Amino acid sequence: MTNYERVEAILDEKNIDAILVSDGYNMRYISGFTGATGYLFISKNVRKLFTDSRYTVAAKAQAPDFDVEIVDGGRNYAALINNAIEADGVKKLGFEANNFSYAQYESFKKSLKAKELVPVGNDLSLLRVKKTEEEIANLRQAEHIGDIAFNEILSHIKPGVTELEIAAKIEYIMKCNGAEKLSFETIVAAGINGSKPHAEPGNYKIQSGDLVTMDFGCVYNGYCSDMTRTVCVGKANAKQREIYDIVLKAQTAVIDTLKPGMKGKEYDKIARDIIADAGYGEYFGHGLGHSVGLEIHEDPRFSVSEERIIEAGTIITVEPGIYIPDFGGVRIEDMLVLTEDGCEDFAHSRKDLIEL
Residue 112: helix, strand or coil by DSSP? Predict the structure, then answer.
């Protein structure tokens, strides 16, 4: 079944006549179109891609199963959508409410000729949860590029080098090894900055004795990677090593247990219990991880509130951490895919505490 045929099945589930797809990642997943603007219009009889003249050639090449129509001076998106609504007799039109601003909704409510606009929630995004072999291969390669970057960056981390310099070098290495772009802004947090899980790299100069946490990822063939490693510049003290060992123990325990059929919150609990039992529960505030694909953060999430059963083919990041104010922090993260009998870890960079 093609991805657009899976969308057509949602029409019956929602009792609607057509769906207007506006989320760029969903547009790419369903049609192949990678342009930055446009809409898909999908019914049982019609598959249309509306975009502007910047993407005429790309749209026709990337989305061969869709009729491509271009907005111009006399035809805006509402006009093109209305033509499709009238030609196909659409009464109920589904739309991605999670991707619409209130202003967009109000505009389309006034201008579109469908009798009813029906929100479809995240039904389209959930089509992307279980990855195909092709998607898995792209994700594996994206994480491999991260492995290359980590192994190469180690020789550049030394006292006097700034967080920004390390971040820039990581990004350069990834792009030199096949990355299209970053999957998110690179995090480099040294010393006490490591107490902030999503610290922004700055002009802080790394000092001997600092823990340095690096969280980075890239995009390969449209698919994202995500990896975190923490190293020590010089000899780690007893507390630094204690915290590192706890985080590594928590991550290893989850990876050793990973298999499909568990609830998302059950994976989270494995790591959270280990960190709490060691006395650092209050310093692990975020969820264990998230899924990854065309977007860096996808559903399902792996947190205390995730009730969904996780199936084989789902991507998961395992990224426990401990973050102590005025001291620093440790996070270790791998990206994996759940297989029928366990998991495959895409990350292969060493995880013992590296002292540079």
Answer: coil
Would the pLDDT of 193 be above 70? yes
Pairing assessment for the beta strands 334-339 and 223-224 based on DSSP bridges:
unpaired
Q: Which domains does the chain have, with CATH numbers?
A: 3-126 (3.40.350.10), 133-345 (3.90.230.10)
Query: Coil, strand or helix: which one is 186?
Result: coil
Res 164 pLDDT > 70: yes
Q: What is the pLDDT of residues 50-83, one digit of tens each?
A: 999 999 999 999 999 999 999 987 679 999 999 9
Measure the CA–CA gap between 66 and 148, rounded to whole angstroms: 38
Alpha-carbon gap, residue 300 to 29, rounded angstroms: 17
Residues 157 and 327: beta-carbon distance below 8 Å: no
Bridge partners of residue 122, in order along the sequence: none
State the pairing for strand pair 187-190/92-95: unpaired
Q: Give the pTM.
A: 0.94
